[in-house]
Amino acid sequence: MIGYLSTSMVDNSLLSTNKPRVVFWAYKTAFKLASGVPISAGQGLGVIFGGLAYLMSQKKRRIVRNNLKPVFGESGNFSELVVLKAFNSYARFWFESFKLGSMTRQEVQAKGREEDLELLYGAIKEGRGAIAVAAHLGNWDFGAAWFDDSRAKANAVVEALEPPELFRWFVDFRLKFGLTAIAHNDNPMPKLVAAIRRNEVIALVSDRALDAATAEVDFFSQRVKLPMGPAILALRTNAPLIPIACYMEPKGGHLTKVLPEIQIGERKGLREDAQRLTQEIAWALEELIKFAPEQWHVFSPIFGSTSKLP
């Protein structure tokens, strides 16, 4: 598992269907409808449609509740309101991602700000390439669109979809903002290494493991398996691992926040080093998620089969 951006922009479990072409036209219709609505309306739409989704899905409420409780630990600050806000946030994310299809780069730039993004641009200036590790947090699609591709070319591993027309449509959509999509089922590692060698940025969503190449780590005081792909890529290329998130703010605003580089450190062996770095990534993702827990969009179980650390 490399760790990848969801091309569908929502968990597959939220949009399961045996009719891919129906999904294709549903997405195109949603993009068209969103084009006539200002992005500042996303917060209000999120409350409406997120609230409806919250009421309609007891199973998803339970999953989100179980995923978010460990974020708050023993603080006692967790409440059901956090779960509702997560649904609201996710609905806003969905609207905004549709809305991006009709926005110009200037319009996108006007709705964003950053903290410490120079840490990432600096790595590119030094010729090191960069691996941007993220969670399903905030609006990663907006963050990719907001990124200044005149300073660094960006790539992302994305989930392949059926029908092929839908996948190509999303690839073209991301190319509009300078983001090159790499299909996760098309042997992506050589393409990622080549991109790093070209001094480009690789964006990898790394808070869920969907196949065997994983490391068991401590994540919010739980033992979970996370993808080792980002760590292995860093070890192979010496590219810096840079934690990043794009949070949604009021009135259609967004904050791209970057944490300091995760140091590769002394090398002992590929498996041991990858395990150690994946743990460092997990701790960095914890910090990013704690900044806005209600924007952690995890509608599939993260901790369901894990046991609490002693």
Which labels suit this protein?
7-stranded mixed beta sheet, 11 helices, 45% helix, disordered C terminus
Number of helices: 11
Strand content: 15-25%
Percent helix: 40-55%
The main sheet comes to: 7 strands, mixed
End-to-end separation in angstroms reads 28 Å
How many strands in all? 9
Strand order across the largest sheet: 1-9-8-2-5-3-4
Average predicted local confidence, pLDDT? 85
Give the structural class.
alpha/beta
Order of helices and strands: HHHHHEHEHEHEHEEEHEEH
Number of domains: 1
Q: Runs with pLDDT <50, length 5+?
A: 1-17, 305-310
Explained architecture:
The chain has helices spanning 20-34, 42-56, 58-72, 80-99, 105-109, 118-125, 140-146, 164-175, 188-197, 229-237, 270-291, and strands at 112-115, 130-134, 154-158, 179-183, 201-205, 214-219, 222-227, 241-248, 254-258. It has 310 residues and is an alpha/beta fold. The protein has one domain. The strands form 2 sheets. A 7-stranded mixed beta sheet has the order 1-9-8-2-5-3-4, with helices on both faces. A two-stranded antiparallel ribbon has the order 6-7. A hairpin with a 2-residue loop joins β6 and β7 (222-227). α2 crosses α4 (80-99) and α10 packs across α11. It starts with 19 loop residues before the first helix and ends in a 19-residue tail after the last helix. The model is unreliable at 1-17 and 305-310 (pLDDT under 50).
